[in-house]
Each structure stands twice: as C-alpha cells, then as structure tokens.
From TrEMBL, chain A:
Belongs to the short-chain dehydrogenases/reductases (SDR) family. It holds the Pfam family adh_short. PANTHER family: 3-OXOACYL-[ACYL-CARRIER-PROTEIN] REDUCTASE, CHLOROPLASTIC, SHORT-CHAIN DEHYDROGENASES/REDUCTASES FAMILY MEMBER. This is 3-oxoacyl-ACP reductase. SMART domains: PKS_KR. Residues 20-199 form the Ketoreductase domain.
Length: 257, 83
C-alpha cells in the first residue's frame, strides 16, 4: 500500500456528527473542570478523570448522575485509563469526543530540571495523551463510529518562554500530532488543538510578575486569557459543523502575533 | 558529597563575572542588576558548583525570582547543597 493514510481523495467523507459523549482528561480543576461543566451544561454526556477527583468535580457528577462518569485515574497509568474508558462507555454509551487536557506544568530552567522531572513531563503531557488518543480512536474505528478530538495545547508550543522548555516541547509535539492525526484519520475523526495563552491563574503562577506584565502589555485585548474564553472554542470543535480539521486555534488575544 | 563554603561559592561567582570583564563587589547587598549578573550567569555558577561537588543541583525557577542581591545568590546555593 503506497499511502499509509486512510484518506481517499476521490471520495468525500460525510460530515462528522456533533459529539454526544465526551471524555475529558484532567477534568478536576482549572480549564478541565470548566470544560466538563460547560459540556454538561450543554446537555452532553461527559466522562472525566484526573489523578484526584476534587469536590467540585464530585459535585458536578452528583448533580448529573445519568450524564456523567468521573473517577480518579492517573493519565500515565494506561491500564487504569483503559478500565475507566470501558466503564465510562458502559455508563454513558460510546465515546465520540475526546478532550486531551491533562498536563503538568513546569517552572525550572532546562539545565536545572531533574532528569526524572523532565521524563515525567514528557510522559504526562505527550506520551499519555497519545496513548489515550490511540485507545479512543481504536474503539471508534472498531465500532464503525466517527468522532472528534480536541487537544488542549498552549501558546508555548509556538512561542518561546524560559522555564518551560520541556513543557513547550510536549505542547508543540501535540500540535504536530494534531496535524498528522487529522491527515491519518481521513475526516472520519476531526482532530484539532486549542492553544490558550497564559491564564491569569494556574500556569501563570509559574511566570514572574515581570513576565506576566510584559505579556499583558503586548496583548492587544489587554488581558490574559480566561478559561471562559476557551470554552466556546472547545465546544465549537466538538459540536459545530465547520470543516475545521488539523488546526491549532490560538486563544491569546493576539499576544503572540 | 563535598559541600562548598559560602566563600568558595563567592570565588566562583567572581570568576563568572570576571570572564565577562565585570567585578564582583565585596558587599553582599550589591544589586545583581547593577553588577550585570543575569539568570544565565546564575546557571553557570550553579553548574560550576555542581562540577566541584559532583552533585546535580536542580531547582525551580520560582526560587530564582526572589534572588536580588549577591548575598541572595550565595545563600541560595549554600542552602541548596544541604539535603
């Protein structure tokens, strides 16, 4: 076979239906929790895992027992992830949407980052989402389903920031994987990435105030990205008919332009 | 593990600056920005300490952001060597 992709340029794939059952990794806090909340509010069925199920995520699950499935799973534990996916599909039905959100941050210069920490960042932010994607796509294809994948990456994948070398490498890696997966899956699964700029909280905590002030000054919209500003983009990629595929959508107020 | 004294770390810091034609003042309160000691100079100094102690010194950038004076540098690296 000369073409390793599943694309057939002579036929057009029918549109991929909006996702109805979405798996969110790292859904216990921050942007992940906001995505889970937003998708539940939109009426979807949502499975979410994180290393720890926070009270906020547990409350969401309690409020939507028929439409949610949550559990404590380390995204790097493939066996546990597989078991969670099976249980989630038994509870909610076949997964037709995946949001790869789980990630660990970094706050250390490359030369002073312990080798074990460096390996951990790559494992959590790059290897694990590739494994989870493989797992979910295999299930989709085996059951003749279509689906959508949204990778939450970062502006760090495209621009340089000191103290975030390994983190940036993993996010850039996921951006690259997004493009190749979109090609490989031939329109049967839409694969896109959302790359937020720095949030005022969380990741921004690893930057110095001077760096944050510089970013705000260079941002035409005059403010750092808020999770609420990312949610409509994620929801659009999961739900709307747009023909967007293989793209990395930057949400940073044009700070990086 | 060999633990470098504060005085030895100061010697090494002086070498890092001297290689750039700069002088390390005697005053521990001297401001790093005023003497031109930048974050990459701090990395070079930390790696020189590693060379002498044969022990990796890994640390987060958050600690570096609190460093403003020569004394802060010496204290940070001296503390870092202690388990």
């Amino acid at each position: 076979m000369s073409d390793p992709t599943m694309s057939d340029p002579t036929t057009s794939a029918p549109p991929v239906s909006p996702s109805t059952v979405v798996l969110v990794s790292g859904g216990s806090r921050g942007l992940g929790l906001a995505i889970v909340t937003d998708l539940l509010d939109a009426g979807l069925r949502v499975a979410a895992f994180a290393r720890t199920v926070t009270p906020e995520l547990a409350k969401l699950a309690a409020n939507h027992p028929d439409r949610s499935h949550v559990g404590p799973v380390d995204v790097t534990d493939l066996a546990a992830v597989q078991a969670f996916v099976r249980a989630a599909e038994q509870h909610l039905g076949p997964i037709d949407g995946l949001v790869n959100n789980a990630a660990v941050g970094q706050d250390s210069l490359h030369v002073h980052t312990a080798t074990a920490d460096l390996a951990g960042i790559v494992e959590t932010n790059l290897t694990a989402p590739l494994q989870l994607t493989r797992l979910v796509v295999r299930r989709m294809l085996a059951q003749g389903r279509r689906g959508r994948i949204v990778n939450i990456t970062s502006i760090c994948g495209q621009r340089g920031f000191p103290g975030l070398v390994a983190y940036s490498a993993t996010k850039g890696g996921m951006d690259a994987a997004t493009r190749s997966l979109a090609r490989e899956l031939g329109g049967r699964v839409l694969v896109n990435a959302v790359a937020p700029g720095f949030f005022a909280s969380e990741m921004s905590a690893v930057l110095g105030q001077t760096q944050l002030d510089q970013i705000v000054r260079r941002t035409p919209t005059g403010h750092l990205t808020e999770p609420d500003e990312v949610l409509p983009v994620v929801r659009m990629l999961l739900r709307e008919q747009t023909n967007i595929n293989g793209q990395v959508l930057v949400v940073d107020g044009a700070a990086s332009i | 593990m060999t633990e470098l004294t504060r005085a030895r770390i100061r010697d090494l810091m002086g070498q890092v600056l001297a290689n750039q034609g700069k002088v390390l003042p005697d005053d521990d309160d001297a401001d790093l920005r005023e003497i031109g000691f930048r974050s990459l100079d701090f990395s070079e100094l930390a790696l020189r300490v590693e060379d002498e102690t044969d022990e990796e010194l890994n640390f987060d950038a958050a600690g570096l952001r609190r460093i403003a004076t020569v004394g802060d540098v010496l204290d940070f690296l001296a503390d870092l060597q202690r388990p």
